[in-house]
């Protein structure tokens, strides 16, 4: 280890320590163009809220690396309940401080924290350029390789962005709603009537551990969707939904979700779209997404750039997005490293 790394001091990111949080925010915002996986710039309200509000079924740990009192690096790990992994959510060296071993020290610290939480593997996504697509920094993959990590082959996919200034998928109007269904809008908070149905549709995609659904008395209050909403609201996010109700049964056949941070009026994140297996084949996915885009634009007229991410295994959704005018921008590839490095 060189002298810089040896002189580092790690302090926890703690909601009760505003000075450290401010330094972390400044470092993260100042380094914005280097942070992978993000079409929208980081939002201060979202970042601050994320320290208090972890996604359901996870715990978070964050640390700031200080050198002579200056913030030079940051590390955030996500610990999914009951899983053997720690997910590296942020591992960042201040742009002016790179190639002095700080990233290596952060990675070593990540391994130590993961071991303290009983995890055996560190996992993280690395962004790559698409053939013919915009250039992407190859440094993160070189760094990860140098630290003994390798592609995990577990999940890979594509980030797609839709620039409404270049293509408006609603220019010719919205497609007709298939016979036998009606559309229902809601905002950040899912109505009680749909809370369990939305949670179960998410469970059908395997997006959350099975213990988070909420069954029996108090099912709605403890449902996955209510837990997710608490995080969203705590991070200052606004969400927009459209669901498709099957008129004969009154059941929710599918829904789509889009959300915004408070700090980026032009950016929208297209989140989950799911249609129950029994209701597929009617074109509901596209109907829902376009109806929700119209919904968003009524309340967020400045939205211009929509980002979304899909695993390669979800070819139908990638194709649907392309039909809407989304353009693939970059690939994400999962990498992993053992928590105990080979000696
Ligand atoms: N190009 C090629 N190799 C690199 C690069 C690069 N840009 N950066 C690091 N390396 C390799 C080198 O082998 C380097 O050793 P050397 O300098 O003796 O040649 C080795 O990694 C260790 O580098 P450090 O100095 O410890 O790393 P640094 O402090 O520069 O931080 C980091 C690297 C974290 C990737 C930094 O560039 C950064 O913050 N980038 C933006 C955020 C990011 O992409 N983070 C994700 C990293 S992947 C992960 O999460 C594990």
TrEMBL record:
Instruction: Mention one GO molecular function.
Output: acyltransferase activity
Q: Does the keyword Ribosomal protein apply?
A: no
Name the EC number(s).
Answer: 2.3.1.-
> What superkingdom heads the lineage?
Bacteria
Domain N-acetyltransferase: from-to ranges: 11-171, 184-343
Listed CDD domains: NAT_SF
Query: Which Pfam family, just one, is annotated for this protein?
Result: Acetyltransf_1
Q: Which PANTHER family match?
A: N-ACETYLTRANSFERASE
Q: What is this protein called?
A: GNAT family N-acetyltransferase
Organism equals: Streptomyces silvae
Q: What is the lineage of its organism?
A: Bacteria, Bacillati, Actinomycetota, Actinomycetes, Kitasatosporales
């Amino acid at each position: 280890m060189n002298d810089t790394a040896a002189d580092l001091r790690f302090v926890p990111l703690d909601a009760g320590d505003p000075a450290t949080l401010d330094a972390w925010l400044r470092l993260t915002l100042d380094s914005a163009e280097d942070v992978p996986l993000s079409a929208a710039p980081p939002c201060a309200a979202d970042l601050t809220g994320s320290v208090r509000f972890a996604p359901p079924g996870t715990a978070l740990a964050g640390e700031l690396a200080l050198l002579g009192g200056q913030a030079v690096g940051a590390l955030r790990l996500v610990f999914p309940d009951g899983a053997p992994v720690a997910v590296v959510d942020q591992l960042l060296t201040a742009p002016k401080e790179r190639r002095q071993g700080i990233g290596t020290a952060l990675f070593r610290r990540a391994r130590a924290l993961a071991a303290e939480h009983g995890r055996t593997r560190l996992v993280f996504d690395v962004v790559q350029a698409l053939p013919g697509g915009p250039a992407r920094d190859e440094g993160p993959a070189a760094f990860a390789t140098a630290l003994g990590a390798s592609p995990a082959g577990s999940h890979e996919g594509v980030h797609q962005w839709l620039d409404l200034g270049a293509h408006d998928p609603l220019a010719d109007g919205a497609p007709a709603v298939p016979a036998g269904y009606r559309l229902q809008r809601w905002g950040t908070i899912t109505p009680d009537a749909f809370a369990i149905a939305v949670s179960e549709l998410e469970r059908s995609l395997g997006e959350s551990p099975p213990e988070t659904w909420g069954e029996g008395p108090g099912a709605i209050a403890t449902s996955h969707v209510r837990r997710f909403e608490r995080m969203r609201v705590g991070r200052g996010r606004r969400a927009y939904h459209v669901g498709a109700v099957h008129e004969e049964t009154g059941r929710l056949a599918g829904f789509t979700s889009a959300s915004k941070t408070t700090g980026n009026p032009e950016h929208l994140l297209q989140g989950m779209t799911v249609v129950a297996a029994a209701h597929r084949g009617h074109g509901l996915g596209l109907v829902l997404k376009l109806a929700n885009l119209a919904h968003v634009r009524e309340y967020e007229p400045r939205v211009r750039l929509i980002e979304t991410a899909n695993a390669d295994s979800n070819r139908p959704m990638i194709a649907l997005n392309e039909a809407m005018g989304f353009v693939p921008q970059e690939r994400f590839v999962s990498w992993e490293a053992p928590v105990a490095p080979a000696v």
